[in-house]
Fold:
Amino acid sequence: MLRYVTCVLLGLFVGYIAATMLSNALQRRSAWPRGIMQVMRHDFAAARKTVHGTQCATPQMAESASRLRLVAGQLGPALLPAAGEDRVLAQYVQRFQDAAAKWDGHADCPTQAAALSTIDDACDACHRDYR
Structure:
């Protein structure tokens, strides 16, 4: 009886270790896309907070806009599969890149709010299908 209990406990332990290793391997595989999304989320949240104020044409907004355009250029290689083309995802990525390119960090608040709304719509459209 003790032998069976020992075998069951050993099997559970080995299964736990194997599941943990598999989970870690899968998380590392998607680290680049998750990292890009976190950087974009950070810049977008800071910009949304600033655009609700009275002073929008700040160096920080221009820097956020520039960084968002830079990171948007990396979406294709990070998200699109290397072997085959996902045409729909490529359209979402292009739509986001176009919206990010139109954001002028030196513009007035209403113009920047409209640009950020377009970027938000592009994010929501993609996340609705791919999140």
Q: What stands out?
A: The chain has a mean pLDDT of 85. Residues 31-130 form a domain with the Four Helix Bundle (Hemerythrin (Met), subunit A) fold (CATH 1.20.120). The first helix runs from residue 2 to 29.
